[in-house]
Design brief:
It holds the Pfam family Asparaginase_2. This is Isoaspartyl peptidase/L-asparaginase. The protein has eight helices and twelve strands. By secondary structure, it is an alpha+beta fold. It has one domain: Glutamine Phosphoribosylpyrophosphate, subunit 1, domain 1 (4-Layer Sandwich). Strands 4-3-2-6-5-1-11-12 form an eight-stranded mixed β-sheet. It has a four-stranded antiparallel β-sheet with strand order 7-8-9-10, with helices on one face. Helix 7 crosses helix 8. The protein is globular and about 45 Å long. The relative contact order is 0.20.
């Protein structure tokens, strides 16, 4: 059975005062593209990569074009991808010139002997492998510039949805062969200190996949997801304790909260069960469930 889920970030968004129709429409459109790929027999790894590429190209979310800006007004982009077949994975952090961070992450996985590249080394690899390169201003939008100005004025660092911005993106999938994959891409936190890296490119924290358990992509307070080892914790709770996916994710998020974090995750297990839990006010998400239809939701009880 094929399954798909994607997210567009989480945070303490004032749902009663925020128009989310554009974001919902974008999530539905991109999810429908992923569903079609799966129905056509595409591998889970290809589906999550392409889904995240489309999310990176959508300025409504905090990844690629429209990513939030660091303290110095620059985009610093992180991404990771992982296959559940053999735990093959690739990740990049702090890139400003790779047009598609998730494509670079996959190239790291398939075309290098390493897992994680950062900064200048990641940019050099992007050029060496012949992937598309842009200038940093390619990613910057007026909305993000205004958000940074506001964060500077208030002296705060914000999650992507705490200021009506829209967030970190990710996708998980189960293909017709029963294989799982996960991919995540982000610009991080508005007004973050340059060089800060969150959970997205940390395999076993913000991104994880193993055919024996689940594929997981996270969004929220990256430091808490790193400290909890969130992605691997889901695998461990399922593999070692025999827990079902929903319980593993729920108790994993309890640990994130205990560590002072908030956010959520999307996850699909080896049997095709889907979990989309979050402990913040909102998490933008879309999924294809057992009925084969695409569903979209933002708050706790507003699926359509």
């Amino acid at each position: 059975m094929i399954r798909l889920a994607l997210h567009g970030g989480a945070g303490e968004l004032a749902l009663d005062r925020t128009d989310t129709r554009e974001q919902r429409s974008a999530l539905r459109r991109i999810a429908e593209r992923g569903r079609q790929m799966l129905q056509d027999g595409a591998a889970a790894l290809d589906v999550v990569e392409q889904t995240v590429v489309l999310l990176e190209e959508c300025p409504l979310f905090n990844a690629g074009i429209g990513a939030v800006l660091n303290r110095d007004g620059q985009p610093e982009l992180d991404a990771a991808i992982m296959s559940g077949i053999d735990r093959a994975c690739g990740a990049v952090a702090g890139v400003m010139r790779a047009k598609s961070p998730i494509r670079l992450a996959r190239a790291v996985m398939e075309r290098s002997p390493h897992v994680l590249f950062t900064g200048a080394g990641a940019e050099a690899l992007n050029r060496e492998l012949g992937l598309e390169e842009v200038t940093p201003d390619h990613f910057i939008t007026e909305v993000r510039l205004r958000q940074l100005e506001d964060a500077h004025a208030r002296g705060v660092i914000t999650l992507d949805h705490d200021d009506a911005a829209f967030g970190t993106v990710g996708a998980v999938a189960r293909d017709a062969e029963g294989h799982l994959a996960a991919a995540t891409s982000t610009g991080g936190l508005t007004n973050k200190q340059p060089g800060r890296v969150g959970d997205t490119p940390i395999i076993g924290a913000g991104t994880f996949a193993d055919d024996r358990s689940a594929a997981v992509s996270c969004t929220g307070t990256g430091e808490a997801f790193i400290r909890s080892g969130f992605g691997f914790e889901i695998h461990a709770r399922m593999s070692y304790c025999g827990w079902e996916l929903a319980r593993a994710c729920r108790e994993g998020l309890d640990e994130v909260r205990r560590l002072g974090g908030r956010g959520g995750c999307i996850a699909i297990d080896h049997e095709g069960e889907i979990a989309l839990p979050f402990n913040s006010a909102a998490m933008f998400r879309a999924w294809m469930g057992a009925d084969g239809n695409i569903h979209v939701a933002v708050g706790p009880d507003d699926a359509d």
